[in-house]
Amino acid sequence: MRDRATLEIPAGLEEEYYQINPDILQSFNKLRPPLNIYRFLENVSRITPYYKVGDRLSKEQAQELADLVAEGVIFVSRADHAVYVKHISYQLDLVLLDKHLTESEIADIFQIALTRRMEAFFDQPVRLVYDKVREDVLVLTEYVWEDFHRTRALAKRLHTTHSLANHAVNCGLLGLHLFLAGQSDGFRDQKNARHILDRSLLGIFLHDLGMTRVPAMIRDKTKPLLPDEMQKIKGHTMAGYEMLTRIDIKFSEMERCVSEHHERLDCSGYPQKIGVGTISELGLLTGVVDSFCAMITKRPYAPAMEQLAAAKKLYEDAKRYPADVVKRLIALLASGK
Questions:
Q1: CA triplet 266, 180, 299: central angle to 5 degrees?
Q2: Which segment of 2-6, 158-162, 180-184 scores lowest on mean pLDDT?
Q3: Which of 319, 111, 294 lies closest to 311, judged by CA?
Q4: Gap between the Cα atoms of 298 and 55, Å rounded
Q5: The predicted structure's pLDDT at residue 4
Q6: How far is CA 38 from CA 18, 50, 69, 186, in A?
Q7: In the chain, what are the domains?
Q8: First CA to last CA distance, the chain
Q9: HD-GYP domain spans which residues (predicted)?
Q10: Which of 319, 320, 336, 197 is nearest to 253 (CA)?
Q11: How far is CA 58 from the centre of its chain?
């Protein structure tokens, strides 16, 4: 059997096709793969159809396909990107194995997978579902741990419409970049650095957990809130904190994100009205991404703001928001222009 590393793939081929590895193949339905499959014929240096979606492979063909994948001659078309991305999003750890995906494609996969996971958790915020969220977030931190620059593509995969799940994912992906961009060069070498990153990112994703206790009719109300309705909104931070306890999550990083993301430097926030020197850096960062991600999405009661305009508005409100975090945000947005 030919070593796939010695196979001569024509230049430009992988711009049009993904090369499938055995781990990816095993995630497919064995007899009915979910998308069209192509074989590379080395003797003529071209791609030819091998399997058409909707057909059924025999056991013998399935074994032949596995052998060909091991040889490195099986591909799927990047034209089927949407199908491939959705498929891998159900087994997120596959992004760590497929070396042929681009950073942009991987960012798509994380956004889809984590949004679906957060929808399930907010619908049923119990320990069993949280554990699934944690598994996927740890895949994300494993992915960026190899190269912190990977957070840039992720931070640009933000939903444009608001929902609890969309907001959580927007905050998580953006917060991941801002968190790592604020660390020193020696962060990886610090004791428990990886655990700190894991727990901090989980906290950012779950910061609005308490909003699941606020009726949707209040969350999505288009008219000004009544005093009692506003109290229910403001109560979501402590409701989330209590929910962490019930789910048996006791990490301080997560507690800070949930309880402090509406506190402000000038003590004008809630629920504790604490200020500079008392709010944790993680709480301040979560407050920035929470406000920014709310501002840039279309909500029932407000249109979406342009991203750079939203960031500048936060920067101008330096009495309430930390300038260093907002500067990191503006730098990210400016780099994409």
A1: 60
A2: 2-6
A3: 294
A4: 42
A5: 45
A6: 10, 5, 11, 45
A7: 4-80 (no CATH), 102-335 (1.10.3210.10)
A8: 48
A9: 138-337
A10: 197
A11: 38
